[in-house]
Amino acid sequence: MATKKTRATQSPNRKAQVHPQHSIKEDVPLVPLGGSQRTS
Fold this sequence. Notes:
Order of helices and strands: H
Strand content: under 5%
Distance between the termini: 55 Å
Helix content: over 70%
Low-confidence stretches: none
Largest sheet: none
């Protein structure tokens, strides 16, 4: 249980921190920029 809990907590924590930061930073600028440039 301790190993599973620690692994599950570390896995989601690391993925959650890297995913949201990368997703928001890359998705936000990439989506609007790409859409704006393509539409323009």
